[in-house]
Write the structure tokens for this entry.
Amino acid sequence: MDVIDSLMPYLVHLVVLYVSLGVIYLVYKYKSTGATPNLPPGKKGLPYIGETMDYVLASRWGTPEKFVTDRTTKYSPHVFRTSLLGEDMAIFCGASGNKFLFSGQNKYVTSWWPNSIKKALMDPSSVDNSSKEESNKLRAYLPPFLKPESLQHYIPVMDIMAKEHLDQHWSPYNQVQVFPLSKKYTFALACRLFMSVQDPNEIEKFAKPFALATAGLISVPIDLPGTTFNRAVKAGRLIRQELLNLITKKKNELLEKGKTVASDLVDSMLMDGMTEIEIGNKIVGFFIASHDTTSTAITFIVSYLTDYPDVYNRVLEEQMDVSRSRRPGEPLKWEDIQKMKYTWCVACEAMRLAPPANGAFREAITDFTYAGYTIPKGWKAFWTVHSTNKNPNYFPDPEKFDPSRFEGNGPPPYTFVPFGGGPRMCPGKEYARLEILAFIHNLVTTFKWEKLNPNEKISYIPSPIPEEGLPIKLQAA
């Protein structure tokens, strides 16, 4: 009895502690469920990896839209939950989902870049900067570069470089691979316009590591030897060093010559007082936006023109009309590009069926509700072309290649968004259009071609890539 009496105070304390912890747990649980009463349906997959491997495998098999359609069928056609790249993520689907994210910029969501992108390509001192801050800085230097008067100045350069590229890398051969050559052209053009670099050896210093870096952009950020991400990080380090050398050289030239007019983007940023590291980060961003996506679009335009002779003939006639309206040797100009309406419809249909970019990420800056589901603050969001491009509700007979979809008023709003939309629409949209049309004009007026492997497999890594590089046999036009 004495023993029980002596232990009684401790037992009382234990009971009180137990009851208190129970109450705290119930209150926490109530508040947690109250804060997020109805998350989007879906699953998170494996710890840390989530469903990233499911997405990667679907892409490697050439069916990235299957990752989306399987889940919209199972969970919700509007939004579903998953985990990609180590992040809780809501995938917004359909035209309504696109519209909501585009119009909700800075109200519900802000720009966000995966750590794999920031760690692979940005200087380590900038990795902790917010994606919103970096994105805003990036765009601050684009508008002057992309003003109509600037773009008009670039058209003759694009035309001349397309001619030179075809003469040097296509004309001497009976067979070529379209994909690597289109990348060579778009990368060389970006080097010239962004940095005034024209020396092939200098261009190659950037091109090789850039290819390794972009291959690891959307990968599981595991930095171990032999992984795609590790190779991307090493390549990114090499790119930044080469850029630092170039930017420092251009800075010294500006000081020595006392230049007051910028000849390219690097000059412009130096004159505005940006540091070498900041400029390097921005130039890498420009290359990502303007290089891989445009070369992919060119590749698949060439592919579809081969498959559809009637479309090819109509494009050829349009481009020959443009040629006949110019004096011999006169480069393309703004007015010529505006005449290439059907060719651009063909380009849009190619980008619908083989989208150069999958979509873009956002981050929720507040709790908000969409389609009856709560998206918690801090969650990542993703809009994807794979919820609309082959959706029969928007594009009847979606697997059919039909450029007429883009004639007249074109597709319904927010159903075809290869360049995004709203305040965050890709500011390089018109630059890409000019670059693509200038190249296709020179190609179809110079060559005829046929595929060497009509059944070539397509993988998405993350953009669509012909596994053999789209080999074709050339003939003079």
About this structure: The first helix runs from residue 2 to 35. Confidence is low (pLDDT under 50) at residues 1-36.
